[in-house]
Amino acid sequence: MKKSRLEAFSDGVLAIIITIMVLEIKVPHGEQFSDLKGLIPVFLSYALSFLYIGIYWNNHHHMVSTVHQVTGKILWANLHLLFWLSLVPFATGWIGENHFSAAPLSLYGCVLLMAGIAYVILQSMIIKSQGKNSMLKKAIGKDLKGKISPVLYIAAIALSWLNPVIAGLIYVIAALIWLIPDRRIERQVSQNEEAVTQNDV
Amino acid sequence: MKKSRLEAFSDGVLAIIITIMVLEIKVPHGEQFSDLKGLIPVFLSYALSFLYIGIYWNNHHHMVSTVHQVTGKILWANLHLLFWLSLVPFATGWIGENHFSAAPLSLYGCVLLMAGIAYVILQSMIIKSQGKNSMLKKAIGKDLKGKISPVLYIAAIALSWLNPVIAGLIYVIAALIWLIPDRRIERQVSQNEEAVTQNDV
Amino acid sequence: MKKSRLEAFSDGVLAIIITIMVLEIKVPHGEQFSDLKGLIPVFLSYALSFLYIGIYWNNHHHMVSTVHQVTGKILWANLHLLFWLSLVPFATGWIGENHFSAAPLSLYGCVLLMAGIAYVILQSMIIKSQGKNSMLKKAIGKDLKGKISPVLYIAAIALSWLNPVIAGLIYVIAALIWLIPDRRIERQVSQNEEAVTQNDV
Amino acid sequence: MKKSRLEAFSDGVLAIIITIMVLEIKVPHGEQFSDLKGLIPVFLSYALSFLYIGIYWNNHHHMVSTVHQVTGKILWANLHLLFWLSLVPFATGWIGENHFSAAPLSLYGCVLLMAGIAYVILQSMIIKSQGKNSMLKKAIGKDLKGKISPVLYIAAIALSWLNPVIAGLIYVIAALIWLIPDRRIERQVSQNEEAVTQNDV
Lengths: 201, 201, 201, 201
Hints:
Number of strands of chain A: 0
Oligomer: homotetramer
Radius of gyration of chain A: 19 Å
Order of helices and strands of chain A: HHHHHHHHH
Largest sheet of chain A: none
Shape of chain A: globular
Strand content of chain A: under 5%
């Protein structure tokens, strides 16, 4: 099983997810700027989801770059992740349609939570397949971000019913802490390469 | 004819099919979780179809990996397969719209049956092109799964009119038996590689 | 300019064109097979357009495989071709919506004609870039198919107003004569490779 | 971080953006050519946007071809560019829906302006990552086109409210000056290759 085709398919699905969300921003019939006012929540939720899918694409890339052998389990864990991410456009559209009201906001958190869990499963499948000296395992270390994210999502899901504004802000924060790409993996990969080079010498 | 472009195009089409299905889950106007109730059949049929397309992508990958030379026949057999798979979103949407009633459920089975037949045609085109010692032929062996699937689809098509629940379950079962990736081909490929390595020695 | 990225982008656009057409087959609200009756023309026009895009993808692949250097002109001629092909879903949808009536049928022919012209332009750009001993020029030879197609499209455009059935049949025939992949190019390429091999010896 | 996956993802997103715009050209219910009259502005705005996305794809390709190492900053600057480009279909649809009236025309300019700024940011990130002897920096030189474009966009945004026809024409002109691919970069790249070859000798 070649890694390149797993990447190509995932890239394709993520590219489509990130782009079809824009179809939820329905063109208004009016021709005034004021006719766009109703679209502001749609636009904001679109921007946030664009950011999330971008983050997933970025981290997915770093993670998969450590894979040597694509096993059946990795493949299905990857499809499982794509499944939950494919629901992001729906949850985004519902938020936009209802101007950040409680139920859509908490559904959004649920989809993010499931995607986060799917990501962790994929991660552990890859680590398992790499055996004892898993490069990915070393790379993620304590995986602080990975542990904080679900806590934030659960908090936001609960807060959606009390204060939608705070819930929304938590989603923004949970995205921003991921904005910094997974340098840990990048560092580990380059250290590995150095080690290999030294061994060659 | 390069194999890579056949793979790239098929990946693209499958990625789009798997993703545009989510557009059938129309965002409800209401803002309560109860407004999502009507979407449960849409969601379930989406999840099932996502699984089916995922299975086809997976098996397609394994099968095409054995191809050496892409002939015109293989190319058109591949497009024929993609044609039937491209109808899955429509059949899925009709099931979801009508809450698993008889006609949509049996249409779904017809589309799966046609896709299954198209897959067998593509398989035999590849085997023919590989000549006597076809790696793919050895790999699929008795092709038990490939023979059971159409029987299950036909049973589900018929049962749709008697008991939609059982028909739906059969579709789920027919998917689950494919969940296990086509290890036969994987094994054959690695055996072949070993044989090649031994010959080199 | 790398050929691979031109191919990748064209593959992406063609894969999307071929797949979004299925969105025109709107899911009916009724749950009887009789509710699908109104969709038969939509389905037939979808199948025909799927065939046409498949043919273009196939021929495009053969043609681009002869390209050594992607010039700016080739790039824009390629985008020009994709532009007209991107209108196929619209023309297809209009035919389906209006059950093969005159104007939609002739518009369909116009789009095919423009795509055909764009294809010829791209072809001549590639030939020009290859200089005197253009492999593509030798390959297409008298280009019989390429010359018959526009004649058939123009005939069908005119006949749409007299007899839509015959016009439709001409579109089907014009597709079928292309079904046979451009073996001329394939042959030329392999002859070239042989020549190269002999020179090496 | 491999450049190829950045290219593949960008290609995917741009291919989808360029193609889903066609979904805004809604199939009319009538069956006369006169029923298409209302779609002329939709078609014209589609053609213009197709051209713009084509230009971005082309220039993006040339620019990314000079990248050696994809840093986190380049990656996010690239996503930022794709974000603004993903809004082109919406702005295009609004123009078409309202027959080139003032607000949609000026919004279109705003989206183009933001995309232009995002492009410049990406450009400077790449130049920074290449250090003193940045090939891209030499290639773009004074970047005349890059400096004229935003001026034209701003002019068109303002003129939209006075004379929509002139505003529209400016968008067409701003596209046409980009039609000539970025030969500067092409030239620089080939010069560099020559220099490398000479050094080898």
